[in-house]
Amino acid sequence: MPGIIAHYALFSELISKYRRNIMLKNRVLIVEDEPLLRKNIAISLRREGYEVMEANNGAEAWKIFNVTSIDLLILDIGLPDYDGINLLREIRAIHPQLPAIVMTARDAPEAENRAIESGASVFFTKPIVLRVLKAEIRNIQENRYCEQTSNKQ
């Protein structure tokens, strides 16, 4: 019996790694005006194997969206040139299935409500814990993977 359990655990681990390797090819756009936070998130995600693009503001985000396909959006709602909630609404109007993680420095329940109503998958109040952010990204992508495989059946 212990042999079967060990084989099952190994098999489960291999399947999990395979799923992660498929999902790691995703493109992530980080829209954040705080350079240090944006760079820290980008470096952390690149180490995980993600292809990361960075935008300092809403205008840069639109430039990237116009030339590149994005699989996940990480968005600060307090941008210098754009209301992040409006940016999220506009992007979701064009890309309704795009998962979005929204963050803000303001501890405001109404901001969280507006973000979720506008299509955010997850909402964070800064400071961000990178380990938690990466876990949420994995959850979003595993859910998407499960949806894709169940739709094929």
Automatic annotation (TrEMBL):
One of its GO terms (biological process) is regulation of DNA-templated transcription. Signal peptide: none annotated. Keywords: DNA-binding, Phosphoprotein. InterPro entries: CheY-like_superfamily, Sig_transdc_resp-reg_receiver, WalR-like. The keyword Cytoplasm does not apply. PANTHER family: KDP OPERON TRANSCRIPTIONAL REGULATORY PROTEIN KDPE, REGULATOR OF RPOS. This is Response regulator.
